[in-house]
Amino acid sequence: MREILSEIAQWQARGEQVAIATVISLSGSAPRRPGARLAVSEHGELAGSVSNGCVEPAVVEAALQVIKKGQPQLLEFGITEEQNIEQIGLACGGTIQVFVERLDW
């Protein structure tokens, strides 16, 4: 989290709301481990990563909704037998759970 604190501090100094997305679990192969974080400002600025890009657009969209509504979300991304990699975007074939919450200071 230290690597994203300076950006969060800058956003908050400007009076912006911020959401944090955290990888809380994974199974199989995944690009980032539990504890990886992505911070999102209300204007869509990003710091950190939860997937090295493969599912981050969906996480950013959820984070912006969390900022607006204040309601945390639990997201899950992965591949089932009926789905293919192009549909999900998680090319590594694993499953990750990401918890998204608004920072209320």
From TrEMBL:
It comes from the Bacteria. Coiled coil: none annotated. Residues 11-78 form the XdhC- CoxI domain. It holds the Pfam family XdhC_CoxI. InterPro entries: MoCofactor_Util/Proc (IPR052698), XdhC_CoxI (IPR003777). This is XdhC- CoxI domain-containing protein. It comes from Tengunoibacter tsumagoiensis.
